[in-house]
Sequence to fold (369 residues):
Amino acid sequence: MSQYLIGRRIKALRKEKGLTQDGLTKLLGFNDRQTVSAIETGTRRVTADELVLVAEKFGEPLDYFTDSFRLVGEGCFSWRQTGAEVGQLNVYEQLAGSWIAAYRTLSNQIGQERPLLRYALSLDRHARYEDAMQAGERFASQFSLGKAPALRLAEVMENDLGISVLMVDAPDNISGAACRLPDLDVALIARHEVAARRHFNLAHELFHLLTWEAMPPKHIEEAESKTGNRIEQLANNFAAAVLMPSEILEQFGEWSDFDKKELIAHLNLVADELHVTSSALKWRLVALGKLKKTVADSLPQVELRNNGRNSIVEQDPPPLFSPSFMKVIGNAIEDGKVSVRRLARLFNMSVDDFSNLFTAQGLESPIFP
Fold:
């Protein structure tokens, strides 16, 4: 663990406890505030005795400051959720943070390089919704997402943008999150949601990761809000354009030519082809001026629900995490960088279940009986 990260953790804990640097100076018995400042910025080494003293004063175990499989004081999350309790989110954030921290630590240890540069959209909070839609259109075109962009988006994010996309088991009211670290971007997506919602959530989180510096998202956002803040509305417009580019929609004819019954059937059919929800497609057409809002409002929502089906067609969720994530974990095990049992504990699994994570991603498990 580097002195910089230990310093960041001491700073994060100090702030959590409501202490100033002067207050921490007195608590630890240092001569001046500059000592604390130097420790927190990583320019002064913390001795073993000092670290034990900090742990005792704050009532934390030593591994709070030294365990590289933790995210403390550096990872910023933005959660897409509906009515989740703050305590529940905090617990899950710590869990997800440990997975991300383990991935980052092990990828460094096996020598895997991350992208030198980060992609960013040239948008800020003053951008128009039309600007966000245009950016989404250009993204789909530039990265050749094809006729059904939803199906290639995760691959492009990981391979071309260096953004880790992790499919996770999340509490029912959590859809996903974007996580920004100094050297890593991660999108977490609840894998048990229906595919169309997963795709929209992923495109939504992509917007946050590409605009984080210009307009940092809130720590907690309401996924079902119809009147969300401006940044969320921009994210929704960008996501809709990525998944449903106007060039592709034009291939499905003039939407104003259909009567109501035909329109509902066509919406459901096209939504299935694009792997989005019929409701999302409907409002995308309104935003493009291809469908009047009065017509959209008149369509019975019950006939668009589940893309016109009586119930959701049950499909197996995607495997946990991602192939690239599990490759890093597997290589670290083979190189002797980490024990299987430590990782199994990290993921709260038996060794057998942990081994199955590799085979589920089409990889050979490095764990042998």
Summary: The radius of gyration is 23 Å. Residues 70 and 98 are 5 Å apart (CA to CA). The chain has 17 helices and five strands.
